């Protein structure tokens, strides 16, 4: 408790507040620009922290981390360009809202949801970190298999009403996910001799191509019009009404819980949390058919979840020294540079600095919320930019962003190729989201499946041994069976009524 | 229209880089030196490169510019270094990947002989560890148990340094493990501590903290001398295994580099590694300094190359 108070005093030092502000702004830009990831943002700032005192250094890194996750959502909503894979699910309903001229509201909801998710997960980190981290270790490769399958169920939710076409799209995604160096045999697969494909189809060019370049092509050809011919007024206030927040309350809470829980698991990933939360919200909704067409709850769910991952992923990082994802791995590097050794003793030996970090994450959440609130009405006007200007601009940014990722022209062709693919898929009414979800989750599923079988020596019974496996299996079955059950209930009610 | 013009701009930028690398007649270095990192920004090689670049400028007299050329497990960057103009203005970071890639893929455009060696900077020895709660107290215990039942050992991908170290141990100790590939040390450590596997093969710097914390128990360090961070852990040689495995990172350039430039680069790197501030920063990053200059560096790579070629001849890993 003493440490927490001392940490609170630290936080309100002018220099700390300044660092917090800078980190938040940098993070927002890093998240919003398609060529920069949260990992790169944190990594590139670590050398800058060499000369800082440990508390300020961690505040800077923490602020960049949390606000970059939110930054990616702004472009996901307005331009259908997710800055990172964490914001993929945000495009599903955020972009349709922006097209209706409700971009500011979508950002407002994203902001509230991010704040709720972020603060929730920081509380988890603050109060129950050490016991939870032991729990996370119970997850072996076989449990990750079930967890990823659980995430894949969300494909059904973004099928656009045509399961066959969604299946085609997802199958294509899974096929693309098999490209690249095979960890288990040492052979490159389906690379066709292209060294650039050695590490697999790079995710961001695929994302940007399918989601945003395809849309930009439609804008150029005049088929699509963001903001319905630019006539529509960007209407209403940014912050969602209290009644809307209350309606989404359960989703916000549940998504925060899912995000924090999945964040704790090393090797699951932010996007898994966002997909599961989105699907959960859609399934539980009274109007599931509104999802994918601009339902505000569909923005709330993935946004609360992806920001909840930030605190969750720091749980195993701080308590065990095992990072929950790539960003926290870099983050850990930053910790050790300042002489802070992650592990159970971190909370006792360096309590003051750890609590300064945790409290600063609270403040960082508030800071990006405030900044976002200020900026949303302005950036939402992007829908007023004529399509003939906006379309090419998006393509230019996509090209530059994808080039910047690896300094590789190959990725530029890839982003354009995926753009054309996405454009035709849209024309043929094949949803692009299943492809992307399969591309993200495919490798996690495959490596864990094969890893489980390596451990068991090829015995498939490994998937039927642990109680934890059974628990996730039960969740999967319930999730799949629920719609059938609900439909039957409804039919019965209708029959009773007539 | 915008698309075309931006592509044109990119092409222009690419060609201006080519002009940049034109030969010079004044005293080296008269312009910034490009340092290729074959991995992405933020990775451990990248962090090291940026640190060396910062100190390098002081001793070289020109800025050192980090250029990330990631892809194909480093092969794209290695090829770029090997095929650069040997005027001393393009060097880059190399590791044991320049030895193992040509063995597996004879079509790559580099091998041990296509580089000039500036200096090795960091060597992080390999280590085999079990969970802190494990019953195995020594490598001997572990190997004895491996003859009785199947033990699962992690590595980070077929053909990587740690995978080859475990294969060498299997062959020298005449045991067979159940080898499981992981995507990185974090997932492998979590699986070990959760009791899903029996041992992990990794590098010292990734494990020191968990060892101090009692979560991991190192059985053997694959080095010729005891490690300063793990002074109680025996080396492979002490236990009778002629296995040296490590993850080393150093600077190299294309074969046939300008003599004057090469010696100036070597001198600058020696001065960088002698700088106490640099040493302190490196220690913070948990990277063990291991300076080998010029021919010593080449000999160090040569020894590893022979080990890998022998292993490949006896039991190819693909």
TrEMBL record, chain A:
Q: Report the residue ranges that make up the DUF112 domain in this protein.
A: 17-437
Transmembrane annotation, as ranges: 20-46, 58-79, 106-132, 144-160, 166-184, 256-278, 322-341, 353-379, 385-405, 460-485
Q: Which UniProt keywords apply?
A: Membrane, Transmembrane, Transmembrane helix
Q: Which Pfam families match?
A: TctA
Q: Which domain of life is it from?
A: Bacteria
* Protein name, UniProt field: Putative tricarboxylic transport membrane protein
TrEMBL record, chain B:
What family is this?
Answer: Belongs to the UPF0065 (bug) family.
Q: Which Pfam families match?
A: TctC (PF03401)
Organism in which the protein naturally occurs: Afifella marina DSM 2698
Please give the name of this protein.
Tripartite-type tricarboxylate transporter, receptor component TctC
Q: Please give the InterPro entries that the UniProt record associates with this protein.
A: BUG, Bug_dom1
> Which stretch is the leader sequence?
1-26
Q: Which SUPFAM superfamilies does the UniProt entry name for this protein?
A: Periplasmic binding protein-like II
- Cite the entry's keywords alphabetically: Receptor, Signal
Q: What is the lineage of its organism?
A: Bacteria, Pseudomonadati, Pseudomonadota, Alphaproteobacteria, Hyphomicrobiales
């Amino acid at each position: 408790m003493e440490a927490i108070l001392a940490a609170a005093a630290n936080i309100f030092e002018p220099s700390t507040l300044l660092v917090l502000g800078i980190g938040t702004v940098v993070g927002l830009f890093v998240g919003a620009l398609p060529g920069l990831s949260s990992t790169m943002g944190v990594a590139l700032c670590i050398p800058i922290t060499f000369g800082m005192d440990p508390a300020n250094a961690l505040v800077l890194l923490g602020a960049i981390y949390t606000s970059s996750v939110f930054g990616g959502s702004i472009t996901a909503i307005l331009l259908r360009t997710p800055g990172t894979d964490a914001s993929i699910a945000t495009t599903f309903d955020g972009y349709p809202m922006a097209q209706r001229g409700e971009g500011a509201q979508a950002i407002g909801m994203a902001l509230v949801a991010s704040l709720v998710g972020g603060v929730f997960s920081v509380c988890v980190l603050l109060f129950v970190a050490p016991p939870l981290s032991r729990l996370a270790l119970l997850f072996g490769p076989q449990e990750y298999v079930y967890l990823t399958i659980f995430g894949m169920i969300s494909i059904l939710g973004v099928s656009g009403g045509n399961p066959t076409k969604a299946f085609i799209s997802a199958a294509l995604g899974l096929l693309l996910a098999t490209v690249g160096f095979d960890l288990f045999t040492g052979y490159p697969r389906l690379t066709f001799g292209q060294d650039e494909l050695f590490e697999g189809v790079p995710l961001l060019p695929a994302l940007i191509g399918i989601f945003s370049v395809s849309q930009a092509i439609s804008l150029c050809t005049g088929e699509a019009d963001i903001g319905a011919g630019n006539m529509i007024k960007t209407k209403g206030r940014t912050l969602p009404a209290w009644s809307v927040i209350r309606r989404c309350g359960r989703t916000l809470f549940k998504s925060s819980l899912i995000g924090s829980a999945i964040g704790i698991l090393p090797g699951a990933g932010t996007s898994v949390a966002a997909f599961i939360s989105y699907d959960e919200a859609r399934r539980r909704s009274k109007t599931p058919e509104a999802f994918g067409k601009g339902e505000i709850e569909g923005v709330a769910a993935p946004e609360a979840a992806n920001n909840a991952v930030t605190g969750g992923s720091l749980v195993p990082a701080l308590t065990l020294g095992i990072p929950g994802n790539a960003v926290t791995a870099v983050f850990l590097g930053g910790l050790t540079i300042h002489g802070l050794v992650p592990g159970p003793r971190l909370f006792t030996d360096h309590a003051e600095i750890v609590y300064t970090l945790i409290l600063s994450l609270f403040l960082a959440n508030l800071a990006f919320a405030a900044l976002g609130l200020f900026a949303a009405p302005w950036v939402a006007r992007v829908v007023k930019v004529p399509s003939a200007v906006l379309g090419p601009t998006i393509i230019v940014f996509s090209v530059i962003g994808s080039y910047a990722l690896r300094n590789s022209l190959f990725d530029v062709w890839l982003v354009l190729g995926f753009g054309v693919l996405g454009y035709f898929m849209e024309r043929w009414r094949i949803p692009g989201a299943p492809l992307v979800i399969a591309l993200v989750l495919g490798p996690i599923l495959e490596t864990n499946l094969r890893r489980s079988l390596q451990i068991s020596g090829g015995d498939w019974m490994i998937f039927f041994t642990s109680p934890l496996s059974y628990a996730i299996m039960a969740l999967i079955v319930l999730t799949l069976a629920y719609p059938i059950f609900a439909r039957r209930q409804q039919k019965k009610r209708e029959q009773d009524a007539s | 229209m915008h698309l075309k013009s931006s592509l044109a701009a990119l092409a222009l930028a690419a060609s201006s880089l080519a002009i940049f690398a034109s030969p010079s007649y004044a005293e080296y270095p008269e312009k910034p030196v490009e340092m290729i990192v074959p991995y992405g920004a933020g990775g451990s090689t990248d962090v090291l490169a940026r640190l060396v670049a910062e100190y390098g400028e002081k001793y070289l007299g020109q800025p050192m510019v980090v250029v990330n050329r990631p892809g194909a497990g480093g092969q794209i960057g290695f090829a770029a270094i090997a095929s650069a103009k040997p005027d001393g203005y393009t060097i880059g970071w190399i590791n044991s990947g320049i030895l193992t890639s040509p063995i597996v893929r004879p079509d790559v455009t580099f091998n041990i002989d296509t580089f000039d060696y500036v200096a090795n900077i960091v060597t992080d020895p390999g280590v085999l560890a079990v969970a802190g709660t494990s019953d195995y107290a020594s490598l001997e215990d572990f190997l004895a148990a491996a003859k009785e039942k199947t033990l699962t050992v992690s590595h980070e991908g077929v053909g990587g340094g740690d995978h080859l170290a475990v294969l060498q141990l299997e062959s020298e100790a005449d045991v067979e493990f159940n080898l499981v590939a992981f995507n990185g040390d974090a997932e492998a450590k979590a699986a070990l501590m959760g009791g899903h596997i029996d041992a992990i093969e990794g590098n010292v710097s990734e494990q020191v903290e968990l060892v101090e914390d009692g979560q991991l128990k190192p059985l053997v360090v694959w080095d010729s001398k005891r490690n300063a961070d793990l002074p109680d852990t025996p080396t492979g040689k002490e236990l009778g295994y002629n296995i040296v495995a490590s993850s080393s990172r150093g600077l190299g350039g294309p074969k046939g580099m300008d003599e004057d430039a090469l010696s100036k680069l070597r001198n600058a790197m020696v001065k960088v590694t002698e700088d106490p501030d640099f040493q302190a920063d490196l220690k913070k990053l948990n990277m063990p300094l291991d300076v080998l200059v010029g021919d010593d560096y080449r000999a160090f790579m040569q020894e590893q190359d022979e080990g890998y070629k022998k292993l490949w001849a006896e039991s190819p890993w693909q």
